[in-house]
Structure formats: structure tokens, C-alpha cells
């Protein structure tokens, strides 16, 4: 039955609407020191069961994927069982090639990314590890491809990650050969440079060739040294003739990440380059 | 068809919320998959008074802001507006027409994304237009499609005013 407009929308409705609008605007203008505890409180109370459901769903999906992979491997293994020596040799060769034994083997927490439907989801990510897993604020968040962001706040079971796309994100960076240092920041949210990074503060006399791999430098004491950030794709601009800015294509897009590693503070003074390089000898924290 | 009591709708609301956190993550790109939480809110708002709808929108928006703190408050503002307008939209237009309901769901989702983007200030220029023109439009379409599929068999059964029980 249709509702009559004459009976619809009383003064109480209008006041309620205006009150909610006022509260929304107030929430928008809250400083981070007020905003973060409120958000954390909501996540740990009302949203905790729902996030638990999402986490279980993500885990179930991962388990199904692993089950399919294990089944495929089992079939392959059964087929190759008659060629066991060759299988052993191939296994050893692949391990050596991938450097699995030498890659990051400690000092991290694995977590799943709990993507949300909001358009701003790639700017801040919610991940499924928190204080209970000894995640710390400002911990580096990485995927196998490179840097995703840093932990912004930590709850009991979840953490908020400030991705590299966030306007406040900054990282001390260097070229892979250590010849150039600078600061990496988002290139902006508008225009063709959206979802790109900028390498700022490079002296004018130094040039960075296209394709150069940019890593975290470890300066500043927040991010460990050696995490891939992206590759240089060109010159972004020059300031006053003494500084050049380079555009960097990020190694990983936050929206495409499903699982991440949160590095512990033990890595802050370490060098993670071996963990991201297949030909590496091993991490040296 | 006999109308369902109020708790039937809230049962559907709970089911949509649970599906949002369990099934939706498996539906591919998060920016394109139907927003079942917003769908539940819109289904509630187009059957309720504007005031309670706005309050429900504020609560849902604030909870979503807690999950994406980059734009804390923007979600609350957007969901409040959309829920309030959704309650009015159902009265201004044809009350129980399936196509109108689908259109309201599409417009509500798109408007929510527009307000979130503008209020948060995270996207500008070409990125904003790409977000609104492609991702938001497709997400609005998928959300409206799920809503229409739900309302087709259940719409008349679920139709009630806030206050009916």
C-alpha cells in the first residue's frame, strides 16, 4: 500500500535527519586522536562478529584454493612417482631458483586483507591480524611484489593499514643500486598520475633511468631497507632547477592484494632485500 | 499475498548483512560487486519513515567508516542522506513498482559513492570520473539487480510500513 505524503515526514523525522547530518559532519571533522579510538571501539565490539564472519569466509576460500592446489599436486605427484629421482632434482632446482629457503622466514605476521565496498577502500586497508598477533603500529606491510603500506592503528584482532595511496603516506627511498635517495609519496588523486607514486628530492645533477627499481632506504627508522616500492617510468617534474621528481609505477596495487605480511619491528634496522630477490643469500636483519 | 510480519523483513536484513560479509568477498572485484549492506539499508528505508531511515543510515554509515577510516564520517553522511532520500523517494514516486524500486536502488548506490568520494576528498579529476563513471555505475547496477531479484518474488510479501507488525 502506498504511503500518503500528507502523513509522511513529520517534524520529528526532519529533526532526526538534521541531527544525523550534524553528527556526520562532526565525525568528518574529528581529529585522528579522537577518530581512531572510536573506530577501533566499533571494530572490537559491534563489528567484531561480522569481521569474524568475513575472516572465516576469506579463510574458507583460501582453504578451498589450497585444497585444489594440493589435489593437483597430489595428482602430479602420483604421475611423477615413477620418476622420483627426477622429481627430487626438479624440486631442489625449483627451491634454489625461488630461494624459498632463504626468503623471509621469521619476523612477520601473515594476514588477510578484508576489502570493503567503499570507493576509498584502497587508501586504507583492514587486515586480519592485530595486537593478539603482536602487530605494532608503523609496521611495514608487504606483499611478495613489494610495499603495500604501513600499519596505522592496531586493534585486538585487526589492524588498519595506511596504503601508499594515502595522501599522508611517505617513505624514504633509494634506487636499487643505492646511487640515488629521495622521498616517495603519492603522485596525487587527480589526472593521469592517479595511482602513481613520486620519487621526490632527487638532486638535479643525478638522473634515474627509466625502469630503475626503487626500494625503501631504511632511513627514518620506520620502514626496513630494501622493500620494492616500484619502478621509475619517467620524469614527473623539476623544482627551481635543483630538484627532479620522478614518477614511479608501484610494485603492487592495494586493491589487488588479498594476503600481506606485516613485518615486526625487528626488521626496522634490517635489510629485507634478500627476501624479495630470488638470487639472494638470505635476510640480514 | 499475505504480508509478512515485521520480523520477516528484519530476518531478510540480517541475511543480507551476513551475506555481505561472507559471500560478497567471493564475488570478484570489491568495487563492482553488489553492496548488500547498502541494499539492506535501502530496502529498509523505502519502507520506513524518513527519520528512522536517516538514523539507520547514520548507524550503518558510521559502522562502515570504522572499517575504512580514511574517510571517517563520510560514510555516515552519505548513508544518512541516501536513506533519508530513499524514504522520500518511495513516496514521491510509485510506491511499489518494481522498476521504480530498482531505479531507486541504483540511484541510491551511485549517490552514496558520490557523497563518500566528495566528502572524503580522496579522489579528484580523472580518477573521480573513472570511479563514478565505471566502478560506481557497475556497482550500482549489480546492487540494483540483486535488489530487483529479491523484490520480484518477495516485494509484495515484504511490503509494510514502519509501525505495521
Describe what you observe in this structure.
The complex is a heterodimer of chains A (285) and B (165). Chain A has 285 residues and is of the alpha+beta class. Chain A folds into three domains: 13-44, no CATH class; 48-102; 106-278, Rod shape-determining protein MreC, domain 2 (Thrombin, subunit H), CATH 2.40.10.350. Chain A has five helices and twelve strands. Chain A has helices spanning 11-28, 32-44, 48-80, 84-98, 273-276, and strands spanning 108-112, 124-127, 140-143, 146-154, 159-163, 171-175, 181-186, 197-203, 213-216, 228-239, 243-250, 259-263. In chain A, the strands form two sheets. A six-stranded antiparallel sheet of chain A has the order 1-12-3-4-5-2. Chain A is globular, with a radius of gyration of 24 Å. By secondary structure, chain B is mainly alpha-helical. Chain B has a single domain (6-158), classed as Arp2/3 complex 21 kDa subunit ARPC3. Chain B has six helices and no strands. The longest helix of chain B has 34 residues, at 125-158. Chains A and B meet through helix 1, helix 2 and helix 3 of A and helix 1, helix 3, helix 4, helix 5 and helix 6 of B.
Number of domains of chain A: 3
CATH topology type of chain B: Arp2/3 complex 21 kDa subunit ARPC3
Which bin fits the share of residues in helices of chain B? Answer: over 70%
- The tally of helices of chain B reads 6
Given as residue ranges, the uncertain stretches of chain B (5+ residues, pLDDT < 50) are 160-165
CATH homologous superfamily caption of the largest domain in chain A: Rod shape-determining protein MreC, domain 2
With strands numbered from the N-terminus, the spatial order across the biggest sheet of chain A is 1-12-3-4-5-2
Secondary structure tally, helices of chain A: 5
User: How far is the N terminus from the C terminus of chain A?
Assistant: 69 Å
CATH class annotation of chain B: Mainly Alpha
State the end-to-end CA separation of chain B: 16 Å
What percentage of the residues of chain A does DSSP assign to strands (E)? 25-35%
CATH class of the largest domain in chain A: Mainly Beta
H/E element sequence of chain B: HHHHHH
Report the radius of gyration of chain B as a whole number of Å.
15 Å
Give the assembly state of these chains: heterodimer
Radius of gyration of chain A: 24 Å
Overall average residue pLDDT of chain B = 83
Kindly name the structural category of chain A.
Answer: alpha+beta
Amino acid at each position: 500500500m502506498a504511503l500518503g505524503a500528507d502523513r509522511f515526514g513529520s517534524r520529528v523525522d526532519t529533526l532526526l535527519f538534521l541531527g544525523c547530518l550534524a553528527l556526520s559532519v562532526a565525525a568528518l571533522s574529528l581529529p585522528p586522536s579522537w577518530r581512531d579510538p572510536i573506530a577501533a571501539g566499533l571494530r572490537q565490539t559491534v563489528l567484531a562478529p561480522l569481521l569474524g564472519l568475513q575472516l572465516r569466509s576469506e579463510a574458507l576460500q583460501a582453504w578451498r584454493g589450497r585444497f585444489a592446489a594440493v589435489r593437483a599436486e597430489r595428482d602430479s605427484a602420483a604421475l611423477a612417482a615413477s620418476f622420483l629421482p627426477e622429481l627430487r632434482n626438479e624440486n631442489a632446482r625449483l627451491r634454489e631458483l625461488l630461494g624459498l629457503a632463504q626468503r623471509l622466514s621469521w619476523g612477520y605476521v601473515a594476514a588477510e586483507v578484508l576489502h570493503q565496498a567503499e570507493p576509498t577502500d584502497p587508501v586504507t586497508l583492514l587486515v586480519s591480524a592485530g595486537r593478539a598477533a603482536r602487530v605494532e603500529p608503523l609496521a611495514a606491510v608487504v606483499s611478495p611484489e613489494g610495499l603495500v603500506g604501513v600499519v596505522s592503528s592496531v586493534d585486538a584482532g585487526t589492524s588498519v593499514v595506511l596504503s601508499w595511496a594515502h595522501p599522508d603516506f611517505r617513505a624514504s627511498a633509494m634506487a636499487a643500486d643505492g646511487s640515488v635517495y629521495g622521498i616517495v609519496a603519492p603522485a596525487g588523486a587527480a589526472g593521469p598520475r592517479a595511482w602513481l607514486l613520486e620519487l621526490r628530492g632527487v638532486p638535479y645533477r643525478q638522473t634515474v633511468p627509466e625502469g630503475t627499481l626503487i626500494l625503501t632506504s631504511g632511513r627514518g627508522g620506520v620502514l626496513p631497507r630494501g622493500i620494492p616500492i616500484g619502478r621509475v617510468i619517467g620524469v614527473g617534474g623539476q623544482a627551481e632547477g635543483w630538484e627532479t621528481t620522478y614518477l614511479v609505477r608501484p610494485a603492487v596495487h592495494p586493491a589487488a592484494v588479498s594476503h600481506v605480511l606485516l613485518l615486526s619491528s625487528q626488521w626496522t634496522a634490517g635489510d629485507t632485500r634478500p627476501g624479495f630477490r630470488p638470487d639472494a643469500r638470505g635476510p640480514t636483519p | 499475498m499475505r504480508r509478512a510480519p515485521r520480523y520477516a523483513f528484519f530476518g531478510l536484513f540480517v541475511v543480507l548483512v551476513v551475506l555481505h560479509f561472507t559471500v560478497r568477498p567471493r564475488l570478484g572485484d570489491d568495487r563492482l560487486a553488489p553492496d548488500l549492506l547498502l541494499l539492506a539499508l535501502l530496502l529498509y528505508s523505502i519502507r520506513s519513515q524518513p527519520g528512522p531511515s536517516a538514523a539507520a543510515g547514520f548507524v550503518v554509515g558510521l559502522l562502515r567508516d570504522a572499517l575504512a577510516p580514511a574517510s571517517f564520517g563520510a560514510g555516515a553522511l552519505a548513508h544518512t542522506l541516501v536513506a533519508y532520500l530513499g524514504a522520500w523517494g518511495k513516496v514521491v514516486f510509485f510506491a511499489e513498482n518494481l522498476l521504480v524500486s530498482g531505479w531507486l536502488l541504483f540511484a541510491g548506490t551511485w549517490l552514496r559513492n558520490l557523497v563518500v568520494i566528495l566528502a572524503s576528498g580522496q579522489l579528484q579529476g580523472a580518477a573521480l570520473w573513472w570511479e563514478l563513471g565505471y566502478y560506481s555505475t557497475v556497482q550500482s547496477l549489480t546492487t540494483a539487480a540483486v535488489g530487483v531479484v529479491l523484490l520480484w518474488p518477495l516485494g509484495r510479501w515484504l511490503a509494510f510500513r514502519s509501525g505495521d507488525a
